[in-house]
Amino acid sequence: MKESFFRSMTWMHTWVGLLVCWLLYLIFFAGTISFFRDEVTLWNQPALHQIATPSNRIQIQREQIVAGYDYLKNTAPDSNRWGVYLPSEREPQLNYAYEKPRPEGKRFGGWQDHYINPVTGQELDQPRETQGGNFFYRLHFDLHYLDTRTARWIVCLASLFMLVALISGVVIHKRIFKDMFSFRSNKGSRSWLDGHNVSSVLALPFHIMITYTGLITLIFMLFPYPAMTAYDNGVSGLFDDVQPTSVRTKSNPEKASLAPIEHVLDQVYTNWPDADLTQVTIRDPNKASATITVRANTGSLVQDQSPTMLFNGVDGSLIAKTNQEFSASETVFDSMTALHTGRLANPLLRWLYFLCGIAGCVMIASGCIMWAKRIRERMKKQQTASFGLKLVEGLNLATLMGLPLATCAFFIANRLLPITTAERADKEILAFFLAWLAVALFALFKRGKRQWIQLAWLNCAACFSVPLINAITTEGNLISYLINGQWALFSFDLISLVCAALFIVQVKKLRTATSKTAPVKRSSRSPKKQLEEQKA
């Protein structure tokens, strides 16, 4: 019975992991980059690199909001939406933005940004158009080209498979603590199994947390029925109840003057004396339906929902604000969402998230390769590999080597595409998917060790090219970032060089494995007979 149970768990662990492993690798890969999405966006916009965070950032927020409010009143009085986006420790720029006129058939016209240096007060050049880190953030749960709802259902199912694989993996680990410290190199499939075990066990709490909380963030899509039973509007009604500041008033085109922003800010600072505000948005400015929303930073609290106040834009009265005290269920849901997104993390904790995310990528990748190697070892006697093995090996090569190359293509396109390119952000994303598609087509025809070596060299060159092209096309480089203490930019270039070095190590390992000679076959002839033949 015991042997049968473990055999069943092993079978389950293998197949639930294998069926979605390539999608899970994409989710983990993009999600890991997303922990530094603000820093990635900053690197993608060199025009903002020289901005320093003011020492009195919180103290000057009030005057920045007033100045932005006045600027938008004079610049875009007929816009449907305004926004004052304040500097933070991770996003140093001050931005006064308004919505551009909406094209026919479109619900949103896009933002017209006006960037300010918060230290000098000078207007900055318009940064290049880019999605930056937000592309990877959306990719890891929206899969970009798919319909949003369909993509999230696919990601939910993959996450459920991942959770089952993690739990079954714990069950079949008879030596889970010993496996944390066991790695035998140059042992073929045994080495891949050790790598899989080490990367799984060392970051196991993170893997379980990030998978389970990822499911929780989409729980109302998976299980909407309790909300549909309790509220007339279903899930929308539930969120209107627990987030009263998200309720939108019906647009009224009748003209009306906006309330003085100072009156609104007096109420904000009365309720939150030491608030670190992040943004102020005004919907339907200069209309009777105008509303003003003020949001604050959650800081290091394990809380995802930003403290928010919603005001009537005409008379300045408070309409609603977020609950100061959550119920037990609200606390659990919001805390789990915060743990998944990692917005609460200080720099050290964010690096820990990042390293654990890399461990997740290694866990999935080693599982993919280990499965393919074991199947190939079992099929040694067959002259041709089965279709299933070819498919798995091709997907391994396309995914594990294609995603790093596609990411480098995304960043290289950011530096090389002309600033004036129409729909420039979409062109960067297109470069990402075209590079990935090229590797996938390459893997469709050849997927042996030679192809792994070739793509490793290509990835090495691409990773090295990212900081090199950055140094050529901008005023910054790895050394200047280090001297000026621009740690986010320095870390970005340094990680690129580390990845290039790791691909060189991969080439060396693959060549070593390829160059191993077969054992010498012993001769059946006697030594005496061999000596006579040599003399002859």
Main sheet?
A: 7 strands, antiparallel
- Radius of gyration from CA coordinates: 28 Å
Helical stretch tally: 21
Biggest β-sheet: strands ordered side by side in the sheet = 3-2-1-4-5-6-7
Mean pLDDT: 87
Structural class: alpha+beta
Give the uncertain stretches in residue-range form: 517-524
User: How much strand content do the residues show?
Assistant: 5-15%
Summarize this structure as a short list of keywords or feature phrases.
single chain, 536 residues, alpha+beta, seven-stranded antiparallel β-sheet, 7 strands, 59% helix
Question: Care to describe what's here?
Answer:
The chain is of the alpha+beta class and 536 residues long. It is built from 21 helices and seven strands. A seven-stranded antiparallel beta sheet has the order 3-2-1-4-5-6-7, with helices on one face. The termini are far apart.
